[in-house]
Hints:
The protein is an alpha+beta fold. It is built from four helices and 14 strands. It folds into two domains: 2-295, Porin (Beta Barrel); 302-353.
Amino acid sequence: MNLLKTVFLIGIVSFSASTYAQFTDQINSNRPGNSAGAFSVGKKVLQLEGGLNYIHEAHDVLNYKANGFAIDLTGRYGVWREQFEVSVDLQYQMDKYTSNLIKNSRGGLRQTTIGAKYLFYDPYKKGPDKPNIYSWKANKKFKWKTLIPAVSAYVGGNYVMENDFSIPGESAFSPKVMVIAQNHFQGKWVLVTNLIADKIASINSSFGYILTLTYGINEKWSAMFENRGIKGDYYSDGILTLGATHLLKNNLQVDVSINKNIKTTPELLYGGIGCSWRFDKKHKDPKMKDGKEVKEDKKDKKKNGVLSDEELEEAAKKAEKDKKKNKDSEEEEIEKPVEEKKKRLDDFEEGKE
């Protein structure tokens, strides 16, 4: 417990500030693991990550069993800057609980968490290292830079509703903080590390870690292994996860996973399928200079002859309006001689009479 607290505090004070463009061509999802990656989804990008899991729970001492399903949904949205995102995590569970004395159907929100994440440091903020065209050996040798992770922080809050899964006396609201590190090693390996303090000041507060190792098999498939540890006065456990993902489109990913803990008080086994979907039509790539995001001046845009989407739309509307006005003028010019000729004929007929 003390070791986890020490590591957690060291992680907090080891930040250094930096900026980086978060948006990638392909979707960047936290599924199917339980960890959170260091990078955000990108400014004005909405990403939904959800799944359906079968759950089996049994307790050797209390002698009960619970079998059912859980639906989890995470919404992530990038605001303010490329490095910042807000998120909401929901989990709804429904199962049948059976013990020696009770048989009950349960249902309710088991998790409701709202928070925000910001990337403080990225070792590759200026882009990946350029290959050495003169040495194959230099390109293949181990780079110590890969040991330096991207680092971000998460701050949020848990809201607990009174239902079949809530603990008597548990605080309705409790804070959650997390330090996130992400390493991209040579080849196709990615390591994500989370140090977590959850439900702070609540009767079931806990400290924990999550280590997620992902391997990119090819452009479409990847596999992951995860080790999660939880240490608290109310509940402590270790959970192992195996999973795989498949990229259907650049903004759409499906996944499958299975999870098993190391205890029998209770014993947990759950697994299922999921999907991640990114909506990025409103996203615009930021202008970068020396690895930092800079604002583009409107005067510079006009000077360089480059117009924004809003300016282009306004110009198109004006052109359409002018076109319609010119068309109306042409019709008036055509109708005017016809009316004059008709008037002269009417005057001639009147004079003849």
